[in-house]
Amino acid sequence: MLPLNKTLLIFFLATCCLLALLPATSTSATSVGISNKNEVLTRFAPPPYECSSMDIRNHCSNFEHLNNCTVITGYLIIVLLPSNETCDYSKYRFPKLREITDFLLIYDVKNLTTLEYMFPNLTVIRGSQLFLNYALGVTQMNELATLEFPSLVAIQRGKVLIGSNPKLCYLEQINFDRLTVMPGENHIYPAKNVDCSRVPQPVGCASESYWSNMVCQKFENDNIIHYKKGIAHCHDQCLGGCYNTTAQGCAVCRSWTDHGQCVSKCPKDKYPSQHYLRCYTREECIAKKLVIYKQTCVAKCPSGYRLNNITQECDSCGGVNSCITVCNSTSALEPIYINTLADMERIKGCHICNGSVFINLRNPIKEQELEDSLSEIREIVGHLKVYKNSYLTSLSFFRNLQKIHGTPLENQHYSLVLYNNQNLTELWPLKDGALELVHGGIYIHANDRLCNSVIQKFRNAIRHDNSLDSLQTSDQEVLCSPAKLNLDIEVLSHRSIRFAWAKYQTSEEVEIIYRPVEPGKTFSIHSELETSVCERGHWQRQLTFPNELQRNDTHYFYTVDKLEPHTRYACLVKTFGDNVEHQARSELKYATTNSDVPQAPLLEISNKTNASISVRLYYKNREDELVDYYVLDVFEIYENETITDQRDYCEDPMKPYPDYHNEDFDDCCNRRLEEAEDDVFRQQLQKEFGCSLDHKENCVEENPKARCSSNNTKSWHTKCLEHYESNYTITGMKQFHLYTVHVKACNRAGCGPINIITGRTNYSTKSDNVNDLMACKMSHNNEYRVHFSQPQNSNGHIISYALHFRYLDVSTAGPFLSHMHCLTRLEHARNNFLYVGYLNSTYNQVKVRVESFGHRNYTAWVNITTCSHSPPLTKLAGRGSSGGWNIFFIFFTLGAGGTALWVCYKRRYWRKLPKFCNCLPLYTSWRALRPDADNEEDRQILVDGFETVRFHNSPEDDKKYLVH
């Protein structure tokens, strides 16, 4: 459904009168009051009664003029009813009316809800004359609920407009295209807010099309065979059913009507009226204020004839320049607009157009109608402008145009303008000098199917100042039978392709044309003009000349750079010049640029536990990246315990991690803005410093696939994933530890940049446990000693402990006294995991709350016992419970031992050691075991009371002495 121009719609609403409809129960489309075959064959059509055009408005009583009409030879307009009264539409029924030769318009009829009973037998609207382009128009009917024409089967010329009718239903079930000759050009505007879902569907219709829940839609094929009516066949000249099988029994005639009988052509003694499709006698033709022209009955004499007021016949003017008809526009400053069929009717037979002529046809129009209406034009005083005609293919109807004066000119330069006529392929045949442009030149542009050869031939045949011309210089993708240019495409890199073609096929100018296309998509050999307007701007064009091209002995070359990697392009080359005989054009060739290194995939953590993290890899548009495999590296982020211990978490507790589900609106908005700014920042970094074939210096040269199978890696974990793997779970992690995942994509061109995501595993409720909690109280004072070790399997770093004391009274089954004391991890470790504190009250139970980065865990309550005095809590604390006494004892022992050794050395007690040894059984046994025990003797001689000489006796030196 196409939108209607607002100006035309306002004009339509202001001038048309619309048909009044009456609410009543509907009848079936097949019910025409015929019960069986015998009754049908005895029935005859009512005698014809022709009425002229009718304009029914203001007063309901004006409907009475339609009472006896079987045919309206003209139009029927029903509008603005009632003005100041209430109409009873149930009494206005016109079953005799079967035919309207022009158009039917219904507008602003108050309180009318249905049309079914008003025109039950209206069969055809012929559209001989139209309102704008429409033969049926219904709009501004505020109460109309159903649009019902039980017998309407054909609108032979013109279109349908259904405008603003806020309560009108069933429009989607009405097949308006079957009513009109050319489908798809009707303008139907369904009501936007009305609820039509509750309305039932009719039962028993021959097709899925219906006017309402009670009225089926009839079609032209229903006019011949009517078994349900008891009629096997109607006469072949019938349209819309019949009363019997004869030519007199037709409801409506398919073509000509001769006094109640349907005929294929009028008898020789009758005058056919093309406008009304009637066969009249001479007297009837004149009585209807028509005139006789060459044995036909017409509304006015054609060009070259004048009316003889006596005979009411058209007489020849006797010369070519006689009987000149001049047409004027509605205003001296306005051009003569030709936008609709109605505009063409007004200018029909015109020889001279006193003003400029603007042709802008919005709907398809038969060439014969253009020929009948515009072929008589010989001169245009202003300028001729043919623009934005989507369906116009030829201007041959201007074959008699001889002169365009150009008063005034278009844009002060042009007297003939042909612009943006998408399907225009030919102009009109001209003999040399047959058309003269008195002032101004020719402007021809954006006519996509109009060939250069046609334009040049037409231009050369016109007498005018050709220095003022502005003409399109290329074929706009049109193949106007030029020579076929042999084009070769070579892919040079991920950014460039090269065009190559033979030198001998090249004319004065060359146009290089290319555009990206989707994989598998092709274009017509002629052009892409069959596609939507929005897609046509994607073609890139480079106009160049042979002396600007690269070349060798046989070929020209043109390199296109700055293309997108891994993208398919459609390529075309055209060459042309002033000599249209040397035009050439290639077929469309397709080439795909090489791949760049792939961009890093987007990452998200899809799932995690206390021992694993699942990472999802994805692209927003996967087809843009050609990936062979991914390299995934996992790094463990170690927390610095020294830095963490510098903070006193008892005085400055740790804040919980942010919960985005519970944040307020402002915080959420601020966070989203920060994330958006961060994304822009990272994208810009990637654009300027990212790894690609254009910036190889930013890429790391390595063989990552080999690293995946090697243990020589700096990461905690390395994995290569296939291109189809989009999820990977990393296992074996520590609970509530921080890990960083690096991922990059690789293909045959290399590996791209790295994308990073950081995540922390979940905490474990089974960690942070204290299993050796023990506590005691000194018997003589309120000194409490609590010992427990640091948990070895914690959720991250331990930051503090909270000691909870309470006095539990068994008799009251509840504590009445409690105390809490906080310890940092470092403080507890430095005290050898022993807490000694003096409290003001007495407590009999204690428990510990362990605070880690990831979790908070409580121990069970432990009873506080009485501490022993010597040494205190030794069994509870081990070496840590008497650490001071141990250190003193060690130093005392070392000092005493060293002093004793020094005294022994100075007193020479060591000299007596051999004698002491001789007394030892072990020493005696050892000497006895030696083989030379009888021959050996060790002697020591005291010299001056201080030094000794020890010597050994032997048979050789038995008498030698060594004295000092």
Mind explaining what this structure looks like?
The longest helix is centred in the C-terminal third of the chain and has 25 residues. It contains 15 helices and 59 strands. Helix content is 14%, strand content 30%. By secondary structure, the chain is an alpha/beta fold. The protein has 6 domains: 178 residues, 24 nucleotide stem-loop, u2 snrnp hairpin iv. U2 a', Chain A; 51 residues, Hormone Receptor, Insulin-like Growth Factor Receptor 1, Chain A, domain 2 (Hormone Receptor, Insulin-like Growth Factor Receptor 1, Chain A domain 2, Ribbon), CATH 2.10.220.10; 146 residues, 24 nucleotide stem-loop, u2 snrnp hairpin iv. U2 a', Chain A, CATH 3.80.20.20; 110 residues, Sandwich (Immunoglobulin-like); 119 residues, Sandwich (Immunoglobulin-like), CATH 2.60.40.10; 93 residues, Immunoglobulins (Immunoglobulin-like), CATH 2.60.40. The radius of gyration is 54 Å and the shape is elongated. α5 runs parallel beside α6. Strands 1, 2, 3, 4, 5, 6, 7, 8 and 9 form a 9-stranded parallel beta sheet that branches. It catalyses: L-tyrosyl-[protein] + ATP = O-phospho-L-tyrosyl-[protein] + ADP + H(+).
